[in-house]
From TrEMBL:
Keyword Cell membrane appears in the UniProt entry: no
The entry's keywords: Membrane, Transmembrane, Transmembrane helix
PANTHER family documented for this protein: ACYL-MALONYL CONDENSING ENZYME-RELATED, MOBA-LIKE NTP TRANSFERASE DOMAIN-CONTAINING PROTEIN
UniProt keyword Protease present: no
Protein name, UniProt field: EamA family transporter
Length: 293
């Protein structure tokens, strides 16, 4: 039986599954898209904090740490939407499953604990699935590379975020991370893609409505809930469950966009193995917990 917090985790992953669709629904390029996403999310979280009459004050150390993690979050989203723009939603989402492998390596380093063999085995299985997808869809090579970078950044900021679960409120964490990412997007825009400034200024109402929905519901709310769930789950468990995001997202993308999201049979076989890895991880976790108790 699923507990309440497990349902919360699955609902969060379902929301993330929707975010891939915005990569096609929003017609501007990836950089201004993330620029708007982080700006709108920061404003939404700030309004919520003021409504709750909470404080946004943090120590100077935490401020710079959160802004730094926000830069990683911003780059993660940038590569995610770049992956969608050069391939499709299915490819971008499927490569996110590499996060389990990256987390199984990063988490022991950050928390100075031993590497768990079962985590490495399961994460390797997930990585093998991504390799199968790569071999079956060489035309999406650049999208898979961007997706892999996105996945590494996702694992990195997930582990780093978990270090704040007791010291800083989730809303405060989300607010400063959105600010940090927004600053980074401005830097990238001015230095590397100044032509995208025109897209920011001429975003259009249709795009802006999609971006507002993305920023408020699928970013501000989702990020706060994401950080909040670290009170109940380890980064590895969350990242391994995120392997369900491609399943949710691919189904949704197929319903909305039709044939453009259809993939070869090996793709669906690989994603099925990813689901199995989550089930196996749950069995291992429960058995280990019972042994400890």
């Amino acid at each position: 039986m699923f507990s309440k917090v497990q349902f919360r985790l699955q609902f969060l992953i379902l929301l993330w599954g929707f975010t891939g669709l915005f990569g096609k629904l929003v017609t501007i390029s990836a950089l201004p898209m993330v620029w708007y996403r982080m700006l709108i999310a920061a404003i939404a979280v700030f309004i919520y904090i003021k409504w709750k009459k909470d404080s946004i004050l943090v120590s100077k150390k935490h401020l710079f740490q959160l802004l730094g993690i926000g830069i990683i979050v911003g780059l993660h989203w940038f590569f995610f939407y770049e992956s969608i723009k050069v391939s499709n939603v299915a490819i971008a989402l499927s490569t996110l499953s590499l996060g389990a492998l990256f987390t199984s390596i990063i988490e022991p380093i950050i928390f100075k604990r031993k590497v768990v063999l079962s985590e490495i085995i399961l994460a390797t299985i997930v990585s093998g699935c991504v390799i199968l997808i790569f071999q079956a869809s060489p035309e999406y090579k650049l999208g898979i590379i961007y997706g892999a970078i996105c996945s590494f950044l996702s694992a990195l900021f997930s582990v780093l975020n978990s270090t704040f679960k007791e010291s800083v409120k989730p809303t405060t964490i989300t607010f400063y991370e959105m600010i940090g990412g927004f600053i980074m997007m401005n830097f990238l825009m001015l230095i590397f893609q100044p032509e995208t400034i025109t897209e920011v200024l001429n975003v259009g109402w249709s795009n802006f409505i999609w971006l507002a929905l993305l920023g408020v519901v699928f970013t501000a709310f989702a990020q706060i809930e994401f950080v909040n769930l670290y009170k109940y789950f380890t980064p590895y468990t969350i990242l391994l469950n995120v392997n369900l995001e491609p399943i949710y997202g691919i189904i949704l993308a197929s319903l909305v966009f039709g044939e453009s999201e259809m993939m070869k049979p090996v793709f669906y076989i690989a994603t099925a193995i990813m689901i199995l890895s989550i089930i196996v991880n749950g069995i291992f976790k429960n058995a280990r917990q019972k042994t400890l108790n």
